[in-house]
Amino acid sequence: MNAFSYVFISALSLHWGVQLWLDRRQIRRIRAHRDRVPAVFAAFIPLAGHQKAADYNVARIRFGMIESTIGVLLLLAWTLGGGLNLLDQFWRPRLEQPLAHGVAFLLSAFLLMALLDLPATIYRTFVIEQRFGFNRTTPATFVGDMLKSALLFSMLGGPLAAAVLWLMQQEGRWWWLKVWALWIGFSLVMQWAYPTLIAPLFNRFSPLADAALMRRIEALLRRTGFTSRGVFVMDGSRRSSHGNAYFTGFGRHKRIVFFDTLLKELLPEEIEAVLAHELGHFRHRHVIKRLWLLAGLSLAGLAILDWLIQAPWFYAGVGMSQPSTHAALMIFLLLSPHFTFLLQPLGAWMSRRHEFEADDYALEQSDGRALVQALVKLYRENANTLTPDPLYSAYHDSHPPAPLRIAYLQRRLGAAAA
Fold this sequence. Notes:
Blueprint: H1 3-32, H2 47-78, H3 83-91, H4 98-131, H5 139-170, H6 175-198, E1 205-207, H7 211-224, E2 231-234, E3 245-248, E4 255-259, H8 260-265, H9 268-283, H10 286-308, H11 312-316, H12 325-340, H13 344-365, H14 368-381, H15 390-396, H16 402-417
Parallel strand pairs: 2-4
Antiparallel strand pairs: 1-2, 3-4
Helix pairs in contact: 1-2, 1-15, 2-4, 3-4, 4-5, 4-12, 5-6, 6-10, 7-9, 9-13, 9-14, 13-16, 14-16
């Protein structure tokens, strides 16, 4: 161990400690308000539903605390415990060509980590989600999803890893700029490919068949000047009873997707309001802004990696006996979240701000009361907590907490009516 080893252990411990502290705060807050529905929701959500949501969220958080602790131990095993070094030494005599060696090391490491995470995924799906009545995934569907995900990872991750490592090994001092350009290009291609090529491997997408609802949606799209390649219904009920709606795609290839579970719960005017909120994200260019932010962060990260890749203490500090580009890349990917976690509240704050802007747009383009009703139904059906801890929410939540969001919308509606 060297000085960097202690810096790494300190950052890891701090991150883990902050997570557990926030988790405990959230659990205490939820339990303290379990027996009373907040006044703003009292007319819409029964006490039994509120208590179910409280128990569901506590169960998820408690298991998350166990997961994070196991994750810390596994990371220490992979690094200071010598796991990554053993894997590197396993491939070194079998694949002497550096590029093949590096790709095999990266892919096998990620696949082994996914296998180690599999028991937790199974428990979340078939124990927690099942206990609270949300899971509809069959074992056959679960296994099929895992196999398809592994195949896709190999087909896409293998060539991408090979291209990145080749640039790192061959392109000299400014390799990181070329890797950044490659990553941006890959991300844009995936924005185009996901809705048409990848998502249909996991779910069925059918055109919206409700003619009256389709006319309402088309009128909203004309009003807002939004174009898409279609409005689709996804068989979300095949895996879960949770409802959602989203946009996917890029440029002229955008798609509007509703979960079938959402369509069963919401009235037409509520669906229109939810869609207007999503349109607000595009009107305010939130997707583009986030892409630019991610591009900037990835560029900064690659520049830092360019510095670290030349430092022997970086490898020695996490148990790697032989420096290499693939080892540097893997170490950086594993360690960077534990050095940057204090930036997470800034990202969450920006995301919540975008949600409020999208809500404002929805109030302009649809019935605001219908938006409130839709959100309350979604909170109820998805078992969202109605009493989050403020600090936990500020750190974790990409959407405004339910009480704040509903209060904000009601203030805006009251101001508009005055």
